[in-house]
Each structure stands twice: as structure tokens, then as C-alpha cells.
From TrEMBL:
Pfam families: MarR. Keywords: DNA-binding, Transcription, Transcription regulation. This is Putative HTH-type transcriptional regulator YusO. Gene3D superfamilies: Winged helix-like DNA-binding domain superfamily/Winged helix DNA-binding domain. It comes from Vibrio quintilis. PANTHER family: TRANSCRIPTIONAL REGULATOR, MARR, TRANSCRIPTIONAL REPRESSOR OF EMRAB OPERON. SMART domains: HTH_MARR. InterPro entries: HTH_MarR-typ, WH-like_DNA-bd_sf, WH_DNA-bd_sf. GO terms for molecular function: DNA binding; DNA-binding transcription factor activity. It comes from the Bacteria. Residues 1-137 form the HTH marR-type domain.
Amino acid sequence: MMNDLEKLNRMLTEFYDKMSSWEMSVVKETGYSLAQIHTIEVLGTCGALRMKELAQKLGITTGTLTVQIEKLVRADLIIRCPHPDDRRAIVVTLTEAGKDIYFQHNQLHLDLVRDLMRNIDPEHEQVLLSCFEKMNQEF
């Protein structure tokens, strides 16, 4: 018989797998890679960032990020600019087309969350929100 920690582990793993599968299918339709969409998501959420900051938020090296950024610049979704105060740093930001991709993808996430939460009462929704906030602080 499973204890609660084992059940939670199994449920989180199952949820992660289902969420990843859903996101892969959604992203596949855009013609962009999951890594590119994640880069757009971070910039859409945080605004303009230095390359180093963006790489840290994505959990990748700046070398890996440079390859992603180059592809997104060629697709006219991101622009690179020198940092106004630090000539050595490059700042990346979304173009209008990049913002459109961000808003479309974000809307898909919101629709999914709305669907997942439709049978959850507000009290449980608040508990779930609190749990995710606490778990995210651990990362």
C-alpha cells in the first residue's frame, strides 16, 4: 500500500507527463520548438532581459541560449539590443510578432487551467494555489 508521499509523487509525475504531452502537441502546431516557446514565455512574462538573466531563468547556458535567440531573431520574434548602461551586455526583447505568439500561447495555458479547474471549488483552488506557491519557492 502506498503512503501519501508515494501517492503524491506518482500523481505529480503523472500530471507533469500529461502537461508535457499537451504542451508538446500545442507547440508542434506553431512550427516552433518547445525551447523557443519557453524563451518567448519568459520574455513575455518578465519583459526585456539580459542574455545571462534569460539563460538563468530558462536553466540553460548562455551558449545554448545564443543558438535559440539567433533562430528567434531570424523569425522576427525577438530583437537584440545593447544594454543602455553596460556595453558588454545584450538585452533581448519580444517584437510585436513575438508578443502575439506569447499571448496566443499564454491563452492556451489559461484555457487549459480553466478547463482543469472547472470542477474544483474556490476553497480547494486557493489551497492548490497556496501549495504551488510554496513548492515553487523551493526551486
